[in-house]
Write a structure and sequence with these properties.
- The structure holds two protein chains of two kinds.
- By secondary structure, chain A is mainly alpha-helical.
- Chain A has two domains: 96 residues, Rna Polymerase Sigma Factor, Chain: A (Orthogonal Bundle); 82 residues, Arc Repressor Mutant, subunit A (Orthogonal Bundle).
- Helices cover 70% and strands 0% of the residues of chain A.
- In chain A, α2 packs across α4, α7 crosses α9 and α8 crosses α9.
- The longest helix of chain A has 23 residues.
- Chain A starts with 7 loop residues before the first helix and ends with a helix.
- By secondary structure, chain B is α+β, with helices and mostly antiparallel strands.
- Chain B has two domains: 49 residues, no CATH class; 135 residues, no CATH class.
- In chain B, strands 7-6-9-10 form a four-stranded antiparallel sheet.
- In chain B, a hairpin with a 7-residue loop joins β6 and β7.
- In chain B, α2 crosses α3.
- The two termini of chain B are 18 Å apart.
- Chain A: GO terms for molecular function: DNA binding; sigma factor activity.
- Chain A: This is RNA polymerase sigma-70 factor, ECF subfamily.
- Chain A: Belongs to the sigma-70 factor family. ECF subfamily.
- Chain A: Keywords: Sigma factor, Transcription, Transcription regulation.
């Protein structure tokens, strides 16, 4: 499993140096964060080549945009993981478009990963959100986690969960708002 | 659609989750450019949902990823031969541009293109905006002459020393077409030849790369792509 603690102050100093075009700092940043980011890219898309492309794009982006990081955006690690995640989402979408349609079919959902979601991820995901996921209904929680970790569209979720799309949308929407209320308590 | 706090709250959460797709996603990205409240809401969710990312198992990426990053950022040093580096840069530009729209860079300039008479005017707008910079980097205003595209710098800063920004049309297929080096301190006007104009009308996509002073020496992009902007028809 991942080791959760990364020295955020160190990452911050590295990012500041990278913003000053410090290539050595960039290399250290890569050493510190690449496995974590790559694990995420792989988890999201389940495809080695796409994950590699996403990681590469993310670090190119970090090199050019390190100066845009600021603390309102969260811990440096969270900012970098967001970059990796959005880039992976973009590539998944672009690939679906290229493959035509992007409509959900059961075949399109097939991948090599154990599913629907491995138990350990469910458990640690719940812990990560201060136990707030526990307060959601099972269907709200599952649809949020499947969207997050598997990047499923509403249509794909409806197919995967064999539920009308309107219902899936409302699970997600209500689940997210309930999550926010809980996190703000 | 009204930007009520409730809508922003709901859309930001779905934006970060990734379930907001297609035109709705692009629309929300434009909201983010206009609204600090929308950006802050997105950052809130990036942090909260980001804690889910922390829990994913680490996987060591293959060495070639780091080599690829170096190749893209510093092609002159990383490439075995100089001749190769330019071409590789161009290939990446084509392969990688399609979905460059990410959270950090959004686009807000305006490009106006005039069709020759007697066809109806065809006006396209797009944007080059950097997050956390209140003004767009470049705005493109209507040019008097036909087939002319003009970029007006607003918040654009000079490229780093020894570098220039170069503007490209990214066609639907084929290599990127250079529109020349973009000066930062003044309006940049460029007349499009017929083929270039056609390519832009079809793909509606421009890119800006960072190149050596004076622009790419090879005619194809060698530097990193800084911005990709998709134009919208008005």
């Amino acid at each position: 499993m991942a080791t959760y603690e990364v020295d955020q102050d160190h990452l911050l100093r590295l990012l500041a140096a990278v913003a000053q075009q410090d290539r050595r700092a960039f290399e250290v940043l890569y050493e510190k964060m690449s496995s974590r980011m790559f694990g995420l890219c792989l988890k999201l898309c389940g495809q080695q080549d796409l994950a590699e492309e996403a990681l590469q794009d993310s670090f190119v982006r970090i090199w050019h945009h390190a100066g845009e990081y600021h603390q309102d955006r969260g811990a440096p690690q969270s900012w970098m993981l967001s970059i990796a995640r959005y880039r992976t989402l973009d590539l998944i979408r672009a690939r679906k478009v290229r493959q035509g349609g992007g409509e959900a079919t059961p075949e399109a959902l097939h991948d090599e990963r154990p599913g629907p979601l491995d138990e350990s991820l469910m458990v640690s995901g719940a812990a990560a959100l201060n136990g707030c996921l526990e307060e959601l209904s099972d269907s709200q929680r599952d649809s949020i986690l499947l969207s997050y970790y598997r990047c499923l569209t509403h249509e794909e979720l409806a197919t995967a969960l064999d539920t009308p799309i309107g219902t899936v949308k409302s699970w997600i929407r209500r689940g997210l708002m309930a999550l926010k209320r809980c996190l703000e308590r | 659609m009204k930007k009520t706090p409730e809508r922003i709250e709901k859309l930001a959460a779905e934006y970060v989750l990734g379930s907001l797709r297609g035109p709705a996603r692009r629309r929300f990205e434009r909201w983010m450019m206009e609204s600090g409240a929308a950006r802050r809401e997105v950052w809130y969710w990036e942090q909260k949902l980001g804690s889910l990312s922390d829990r994913v198992e680490e996987v060591q990426p293959p060495r070639r990823v780091w080599e690829g990053i170096n190749q893209r950022l510093w092609p002159q040093q990383a490439a075995p031969q100089r001749g190769e580096s330019g071409r590789r840069g161009g290939l990446w530009l084509l392969g990688g541009w399609s979905a460059m729209a990410t959270a950090a860079v959004l686009v807000l300039a305006v490009v106006l293109l005039q069709q020759p008479a007697p066809e109806a005017f065809r006006v396209m707008t797009g944007a080059i905006v950097e997050e956390n910079v209140a003004d767009p980097l470049w705005l493109v205003t209507e040019a008097d002459h036909q087939r002319e595209l003009s970029l007006r710098p607003v918040a654009a800063r000079a490229a780093e020393q020894g570098k220039d920004y170069e503007l490209w049309v990214l066609p639907d297929s084929g290599p990127a077409i250079s529109l020349g080096v973009v000066p930062v301190g003044e309006v940049y006007r460029v007349t499009l030849d017929e083929a270039t104009r056609q390519a832009l009308l079809e793909s509606q996509t421009l890119a800006i790369t960072l190149e050596p002073k004076g622009g790419s020496p090879t005619g194809v992009a060698t530097g990193p792509v800084l911005y990709v902007t998709r134009l919208y028809e008005l």
